[in-house]
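Sorry to interrupt, but I need a hand with the structure work. Could you write out one complete protein record for me, on any chain you like? Just paste the record in under my message, thanks.

. . .
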Amino acid sequence: MKKFVSKVIWFLIGLVVLDVLVGLGARYLVGHAKGGDTGLNNYICHEMRDECIVFGSSRGMHHYDPNIIADSLGMSCWNCSLDGNGIILMYGRYKMLSARYTPKMLIYDVQTSFDLLENDNHKYLRNLRYYYDDPGVDSIFWRVDPLERLKMLSNCYRYNYQWLQLISDNIHPLRSNDKGYKPMDKTMTYKPKASYKPKASAHQKEDYKYDSLKLHYLEQLVVACKANGTQLVFAVSPQFNTHDDKVYQPLKDICRKYHLPFLNHYCDKDFVDRTDYFYDSVHMNRTGATAYTKMVVGELKGLAMP
């Protein structure tokens, strides 16, 4: 019995040592990434000091050219948007970057699925796992799932799904970007299916299942920006063949409550019916993004700068 207990103890000690080594190795790879998604994320979270930043999902990543914004507004700009993510990741990123400096302006392109409506919020924690120990990040995990407080004690859990990405980004990064901007160079050649059109039931606010946690963090971002002196501007970029923006009512309410500018071009007739401006029914191509960014900076020039 003593031998069995001794083996169990040594086995557990071995697991702890392995977990510590996994953590040390992964942190080294994250901090020394030469580029790729790992290098980009690390730059945004721990190094970036640009005066104007863009937040959002894939629509934010593909629709806002930071070079046009920088040239027009006379301030450095970086696009911090990330495909398939929204306010839960973006709030964490703002907490990290605002701990070392204060951006003058934050342009947030709000997307319904990732910023307003209910879905599995666990998936948005993926790109925050490396930075769990940074101030203000851990509490985001706890609000999404209280069990994350225990799970994140394990380095094996924290880094268990991106080893190939980490190694690749340290040896030969495959993905490139232009200050976070990733333009799309093809043009949509088809008409969207009926599923892309608003359904009659979607015209009623109560039919939408809004996510209280996402709305909470949208308001927390507003509060944090106001406290730090960052000019926050909410925006919604055009979506092809879209003529109803009622799904954005909670965002309109937040902007009204906190007296924030809202650049709403979701149903902009100058864009939404032009196939030459779109890569697909959700994302604009480079031509559309260039035209849209130029229009937005014209509106931004009219805002009071911090």
Remarks:
- The CA atoms of residues 289 and 295 lie 10 Å apart.
